[in-house]
Every structure is written in C-alpha cells, then in structure tokens.
C-alpha cells in the first residue's frame, strides 16, 4: 500500500484498519504492567466496580488503536507522527472477547508555514467493537510530509 502525502489527502476521506481481538489475558497483562487497578486485573473485583466486569484500560485501548492504525489503510508519508491530541474519549469499555477496528477520517489539513516540506492533518480515529459501537474517539493533529517538489 502506498503512502499518502499531504497533497493526496482531503477532508472527508476515510480509511479503515483490520481487526484485532482483545482477550482477558491481554487485558490483565497490560494492566499488570501499566494500569494496575482492580477492575483491569480481576473479574470478581471488576464486577463490584463502575464497569460491572473486567474492562481493558483506556491506555490499552489507545495502544491497540495505534497498532491498528499503523497496520491499516491510512499511511501518511513520514509515518503516524503526532503533533498534539485535541480529544480522547472512551464512550464504552473494551471487554474480553471484543474485536476492535478503527476508522480514520481526515477532518482538516494545512501546509506548514515554517516547514514547507510538511503539513498538519487533523484526523478523527474512532475505534469500534464488533457491534460497531465506538469504544474510543481520538482526534489528533499529525505531521505529514508534502510530496517532494510540491
């Protein structure tokens, strides 16, 4: 799959990722290392929490989203390089057995005034579960290279 330079992108374009299943072992392994709270580590403890059952850390969802984006159709020239996050929400928890996929929508783009070889692209990455319910919404500005000679 070829990369998309700034000139190849336009507001409204959408790109999709493949799918990735999240199991209980991955949820507890991630949480053990990075977010060791009871509702991410133990189903019994999680049942008594706001989640009412084992739930992946939001940071686990974010990391999985990043993996799906990098392996998906959206291939900005220069890589997926963030310049700042404008929004990050987790409308629903990710549960064991959920199969996630991401839709990336180009919202805005502009050429850089100080660096003529690159621009900024604002995208909304929405991570969905297997029921097509959004589990994460992430709006970010990315640095994207311009086509050489543009």
Automatic annotation (TrEMBL):
Record-linked InterPro entries: HotDog_dom_sf (IPR029069), MaoC-like_dom (IPR002539), MCH/BMMD (IPR052342)
Residues covered by the MaoC-like domain: 11-124
PANTHER family cross-referenced by the UniProt entry: BETA-METHYLMALYL-COA DEHYDRATASE, MONOAMINE OXIDASE-RELATED
Highest taxon in the source lineage: Bacteria
Protein name: MaoC-like domain-containing protein
One Pfam family recorded for the sequence: MaoC_dehydratas
